[in-house]
């Protein structure tokens, strides 16, 4: 839908994985807007989904925690209007009793006259404080979004150093950028059965990173590797470029594949009781 694309654009750095496939974001990713108007901490959450397993439960908890801790909520959707599950999402948002913006993304892909009826329908869903049509990809209307943002945020001393782009650990962002390549170079449901485990992160010239792609079945391992290792080679090469751009220094990445049938149970953080 574009949440992570918007985060990366506003932070002016690639810190969150982006792909056309839904549910790319799994854990909350924080990015910082540093401007003359002030500092704002953005919380990019996973997309809403049905809780099918332990990971789905944890992802839903990440969303709820972000809503609880936020001063302002941005609810983003495509210009084709609300989906059946959106009413459930807005129940969470309404219970928070916090200023809420409706962001209609990808307005560069549709004619203006098609967006107005969508806005009219969505006004009945929730009393949005602001409705801002945007394009996270091209930056259309993001200047207005930022102006509105700082009007609604409460004044507070900066939470983080004004020189950084994200308070996230470099290792976590590195794993996120490597995982992004799984979405680009594998198809159908395979990305949702895989994850990245960072084995080592050694500073130096270059930075030496070792990572393992974990899959659930042996057949998936072959898909990730590809014929004569072509797929994993492409993943490694593109991930290396993304890591070098983020870290601003040379990177050497070593990538392996391993079958771990129960990685979701073993590696998903324990869901806290509310």
Record keyword descriptors for this entry.
274 residues, globular, Rossmann fold, GMP Synthetase, Chain A, domain 3
Structure characterization notes:
With 274 residues, this protein is of the alpha/beta class. It folds into two domains: 3-152, Rossmann fold (3-Layer(aba) Sandwich), CATH 3.40.50; 170-267, GMP Synthetase, Chain A, domain 3, CATH 3.30.300.20. The chain has helices at residues 3-11, 54-69, 86-96, 112-122, 142-152, 170-185, 218-225, 230-247, 263-267; strands at residues 29-35, 38-44, 73-77, 100-104, 130-133, 195-202, 207-215, 251-259. It has a three-stranded parallel β-sheet, covered by helices on one side. Strands 6-7-8 form a three-stranded mixed β-sheet. The longest helix is centred in the last third of the chain and has 18 residues, at 230-247. The protein is globular. The mean pLDDT is 85.
Give a short summary of the structure.
Helix content is about 40%, strand content about 20%. The protein has helices spanning about 5-10, 55-70, 85-95, 110-120, 140-150, 170-185, 220-225, 230-245, 265; strands at about 30-35, 40-45, 75, 100-105, 130-135, 195-200, 205-215, 250-260.
Helix-strand pattern: HEEHEHEHEHHEEHHEH
Please compute the radius of gyration using only Cα atoms.
19 Å
- The number of distinct structural domains comes to 2
Assign a percent range to the helix content.
25-40%
* Spatial gap, N to C terminus: 28 Å
In what order do the strands lie side by side in the largest sheet? 3-4-5
Per the principal axes of the C-alpha atoms, what is the gross shape?
Answer: globular
Poorly predicted parts: none
CATH architecture of the largest domain: 3-Layer(aba) Sandwich
Give the count of helical stretches: 9
Oligomer: single chain
Strand elements, count: 8
- According to CATH, what is the class of the largest domain? Alpha Beta
Mean pLDDT: 85
The description of the largest β-sheet is: 3 strands, parallel
CATH-defined fold name of the largest domain:
Rossmann fold
**Structural class given helices, strands, pairing?**
alpha/beta
At the fourth level of CATH, the homologous superfamily of the largest domain is P-loop containing nucleotide triphosphate hydrolases
Our estimate of the beta-strand percent is 15-25%
């Amino acid at each position: 839908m574009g949440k992570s694309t918007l985060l990366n654009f506003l932070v002016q750095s690639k810190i969150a994985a982006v792909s056309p496939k839904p549910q790319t974001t799994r854990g909350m990713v924080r990015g910082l807007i540093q401007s003359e108007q002030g500092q704002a901490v953005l919380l990019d959450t996973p997309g809403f989904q049905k809780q099918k397993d332990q990971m789905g439960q944890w992802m839903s908890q990440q969303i709820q925690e972000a809503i609880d801790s936020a001063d302002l909520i941005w609810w983003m959707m495509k210009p084709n209007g609300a989906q059946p599950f959106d009413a459930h999402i807005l129940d969470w948002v309404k219970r928070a009793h916090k200023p809420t913006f409706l962001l209609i993304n990808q307005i560069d892909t549709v004619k203006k006259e098609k967006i107005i009826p969508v806005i009219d329908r969505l006004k009945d869903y929730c009393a949005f404080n602001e409705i801002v049509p945007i394009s996270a990809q091209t930056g259309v209307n993001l200047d207005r979004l930022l102006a509105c943002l700082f009007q609604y945020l409460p004044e507070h001393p900066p939470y983080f150093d004004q020189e950084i782009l994200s308070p996230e650990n470099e290792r976590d962002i590195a794993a996120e950028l490597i995982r992004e390549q799984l979405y680009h170079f594998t198809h159908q449901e395979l990305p949702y059965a895989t994850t990245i485990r960072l084995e080592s992160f050694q500073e130096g010239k270059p930075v030496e990173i070792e990572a393992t792609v974990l899959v659930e079945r042996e057949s998936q391992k072959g898909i990730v590797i590809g014929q004569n290792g072509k797929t994993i080679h492409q993943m490694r090469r593109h991930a290396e470029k993304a890591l070098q751009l983020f870290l601003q220094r040379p990177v050497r990445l070593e990538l392996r594949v391993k079958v771990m049938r129960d990685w979701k149970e073993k590696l998903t953080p324990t869901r806290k009781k509310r």
